[in-house]
Write a structure and sequence with these properties.
Length: 164
């Protein structure tokens, strides 16, 4: 049985549903193609690039794990395992956070900076090939604006929650 809140909930239009399906398909197709390009070049997966890029952009090339979670949108458990693998290959290192002995900094190494640059040499042309070659500049600008609108946080807690 369904409750009355399900009956009264607004349903997406056919256009919105079609946009959702196409967005999900396009994302998966483009990400898979870029991952394949990196694999063929014998480079790590795209998630590694995201972590290295955020570390390279950070002050002093270091971030706390929770900052990395926010910037990369990786879940804590996935990020932790990824950092373990990256540390074993010498791309990042962890250091105790001096103000709080329990916390850690994650820092990019010179090898990590070099890997991020190597990956970009494959990643940049892949973005162009799988996206840029299929859209003109006006379409790319329009798509960027549309995606920015979708990227606005719109979470609303249910009325009976603590936040409600």
């Amino acid at each position: 049985m369904s409750d009355s809140s399900e009956i009264n909930s607004p349903q997406p239009s056919q256009s919105v549903t079609r946009a959702w399906v196409r967005l999900m398909r396009a994302q998966q197709i483009v990400l898979d193609a870029i991952e394949q390009d990196l694999k063929v070049a014998e480079l790590p997966p795209l998630g590694w690039y995201d972590v290295l890029l955020e570390l390279a952009r950070a002050d002093d090339g270091r971030l706390r794990p929770y900052e990395m979670e926010q910037r990369t949108l990786l879940a804590q458990h996935n990020l932790s395992r990824l950092l373990d693998r990256m540390e074993k290959t010498g791309l990042v290192q962890r250091e105790v956070f001096s103000e709080d002995g329990r916390g850690r900094w994650v820092m990019i190494t010179e090898a990590g900076r070099a890997m991020q640059a190597r990956m970009w040499r494959v990643y940049a042309p892949a973005i162009q090939r799988h996206l840029g070659d299929k859209l003109d500049e006006a379409q790319a600008d329009q798509l960027a604006e549309l995606l920015a609108a979708l990227s606005q946080k719109s979470y609303r807690a249910p009325k009976n929650s603590i936040e409600g």
